[in-house]
Specification:
Elements: H1 2-29, H2 35-57, H3 63-77, H4 80-94, H5 96-126
Length: about 130
Amino acid sequence: MERWFWIGLGGAAGTLARYGLSTWCQQRFGAEFPYGTLAVNVIGSFLLGAIGEIAATTELLSPTLRLSLSTGVMGGFTTYSSFNNETIRLIEYKSWAAGLANIAITLVVCLLAGVLGMVVARRLIAG
């Protein structure tokens, strides 16, 4: 039951961080393109790549901490559902080009961010 508490607490923290970053991005860059969702998914992919690498190659993270960070914090921080909804809205109401760009940018950049997170974690671990 303790593990559930920490995962839930992590999820709440991730959700609040997502809301804060998304709001900031919308205020800074405008609402014409879902910059906030893109930012949280890229950052989350990087961090989840790093967390996964650290968990897989060291004993620095207990199983509860690993789940709290990955399932909790990163699960609350990243958002496929918002990406999906915003992409559909772009295509439906505004622009096929913007919607397809959102798909391509999100897939490629998030994948690269995840790999970069793993590489950075490996280098940090190696010292």
